[in-house]
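Table S4 entry, GAF domain-containing protein.
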Amino acid sequence: MTDPWVALEPGADPTERVRVLRRAHDRFTAAGTVALPVRPVVADSWRRSAGAHVSPEASAAVELTDGDLGAYRAEHPLARVMPLFRELMGTFATDGEHLLAVCDAQGRLLWVEGHPATRKRAVGMNFVPGARWSESAMGTNAPGTAVAVDRAVQVFAAEHFIRQVQPWTCAAAPVHDPRSGQLLGAVDITGGDGLAHPHSLAFVQAVARAAESQLALLTPHPATGPGLRLCALGRDEALLLTGAGRKIRLSRRHSELLVLLSRHPEGLTGDELLCCLYEDESVTPVTLRAELARLRRVLGPDVLTSRPYRLAVPVDSDLTTVERRLASGAVTAAASAYTGPLLPSSQAPAVARVRRRLADGLRAALIAGGDPDLLADWAHSPWGEDDLDVWRALAAVRPTPPVLARLAALDFEQRAPADPYAT
């Protein structure tokens, strides 16, 4: 096969391939071994699915309904290109008895449209707006796998990990923010075996690229007074996106300074910044002034002013996005924007306080909400793998053997007395 991302090579018999794939799927689910002709992209996805403890008999959970779904879709960036998706794919989906689907970066379906009879069939497996179709929830499938590997992928019949989904074939491509490169979600075409063709994969790729171009046109660079966008969650060195389209990777100290200044538009004095940044009182104002001078050279002379130190342009950040969504009660949207702790390696006292407050607020909302998929996402993340309270909440709503085993191990570790001979 010339392209490993295409499901069937030219001339292949779809019926025979389905039969062979079903045998391979049964062998994998029974013994964990992958046999030919399973493609590497599918084999890797099956392994990830098994590692996430997805059952081949699972069904999709609907996380968002009614008003919650409407509010989330309305604020999602891909809402702006839904008219384009419908224009390019709507007729193709309806005439071919297929479905057009769009998911967010967590594999949650936002829109599912197309042929009425096909939509009715899809309801039987909860392939509906608001349902979670990430790999960690539903195993190998085109929209979930596309956002997992961040590239276009085609999934044919018994390549799907969930047996209920194996009568279907789908192709999906990721869509990114044209400014920041952030993954926004994926566009998908789902239907019968006829979609197992290189053209369907190329089609969704072209539609995704068109959507990114449209997003770039819909969000032109401001002519004057460009703001800044700061990405500081889950990274030790923040990324600064300017209105002119520049991407600046900041040093750790500059990352801390920009986070603090962005939270204090009124400005901070040198003494206030010293208290925010340094636990060691021996650090002199001269050291801080030198660091601020270097940051001014990075940002430009008109961006950072002094007496007090303040930013002269508006700054938005992924941190404030999560805070806004939490404050409005949009917990699912807040969790989707939370890509990790704020500057996790920072020892600056003020940064540590903000980091702890944000994480505590989000995890408290997740525990109170009791959504099993959101709790599982947190529990299986690097920052949540040892979070006993979250694992307890997850066990209460999803008491599977792996969850209960992990909870027992964590409970034992935290109750065990410290080793008096440890060095």
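The chain has three domains: 14-218, 228-316, 317-415.
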